[in-house]
Amino acid sequence: MSTSAAPASVPALTRIRIGSAPDSWGVWFPEDPQQVPWERFLDEVSEAGYPWIELGPYGYLPTDPARLTAETARRGLKVSAGTVFTGLHRGSGVWDDTWKHVSDIAELTRAMGAEHLVVIPSFWRDDKTGEVLEDHTLTPEQWRSLITQTERLGREVRERYGLKIVVHPHADTHIDSEENVNRFLDATDPSLVSLCLDTGHYAYCGGDSVKLIETYGERIGYLHLKQVDPRILADVVTDGVPFGPAVGRGVMCEPPTGVPALEPVLAAAQRLDAELFAIVEQDMYPCPPDKPLPIARRTRRFLRSCGA
């Protein structure tokens, strides 16, 4: 949990563990010349005051557990989760390839002492080119595949690695809007599937994070803290801009300048009978290498002012 003191007038959010992720340093890929080296990310995330990190795209940080443990420990960092990408609505034929991808990441996640695996559904359109890859609406059969295979993933990850999956609603995927998130939660087994509520993505898709926490509180297993610029978002929606170019326009913005307001989100999460990670993620790929650290420092100060 955060050890930084909140202002005297602000209740401490004692159940919220604050961290950040490679995403907030403009990292989307295991290797990319536009991204900062992993050593710099670790140095700066620690300097900015975040004790917890996610692994980010597999292969960006060292995948040898002994080396990664040494590198994080000497900077006072611990790992909260790994991240996997899936297309489970496509049916049982994708299971073997999915599991090969998941198992390597789950192994490293467990070795680093983390307990969560963030599951991101596949995009229905390419996040760089905007090419439509498949229909943005699932058929009933595809919904059944999504539900049954996500539950299978939750069961297998728990039994083999002792991890909990938290599914991440995401722009330009089939689990995005309030309607689709509710449908997904209503259909899945709570003992196998929880949600990673990303406040920015949910707002991007028209959802209300506080309402979701208050309605499905027992299903919220993890948080990503993010905001969107409503003016840029309005243009993105009007122009039908894919997620990647929308990020390039600055649709994900520095707190507290966007929506949703994070104070009520964190307060609603604090009222749940659970300890939750709240990991800052400000999508800004690509970005100049000197841009992330000052934002990370300011965001950490802002979250302290909220009691986190």
List keywords for this structure.
10 strands; globular; two-stranded antiparallel ribbon
Tell me what the structure shows.
With 308 residues, the protein is of the alpha/beta class. It contains 11 helices and 10 strands. The strands form 2 sheets. Strands 1-2-3-4-5-6-7-10 form an 8-stranded parallel β-barrel, surrounded by 5 helices. Helix 3 packs parallel to helix 4 (140-161) and helix 7 runs parallel beside helix 10. It is globular, with a radius of gyration of 18 Å. The relative contact order is 0.17. The mean pLDDT is 95.
Please, what is the average pLDDT? 95
**Tally of DSSP β-strands:** 10
Question: Rg to the nearest angstrom?
Answer: 18 Å
Q: Give the N-to-C terminal Cα separation.
A: 8 Å
What order do the SSEs take from the amino end to the carboxyl end, as H and E?
EHEHEHEHEHEHHEEHHEHEH
Q: Are there runs of 5+ residues with pLDDT below 50, and where?
A: none
Count of DSSP H/I helices: 11
- Biggest beta sheet summary: 8 strands, parallel, barrel
Note the overall shape: globular
Which structural class do you get from the secondary structure elements?
alpha/beta
The amount of beta strand, in percent, is 15-25%
The strand order across the widest sheet is 1-2-3-4-5-6-7-10
Helix coverage percent: 25-40%
Q: Brief description of this entry?
A:
The chain has 308 residues and is an alpha/beta fold.
List the helices and strands and how they pair.
Layout (H helix, E strand, L loop, with lengths): L15 E5 L17 H10 L4 E3 L10 H9 L4 E9 L8 H17 L4 E6 L18 H22 L2 E4 L10 H10 L6 E5 H6 L4 H7 L4 E6 L1 E2 L1 H10 L3 H6 L3 E2 L8 H9 L5 E5 L11 H14 L3
Parallel strand pairs: 1-2, 1-10, 2-3, 3-4, 4-5, 5-6, 6-7, 7-10
Antiparallel strand pairs: 8-9
Helix pairs in contact: 3-4, 7-10
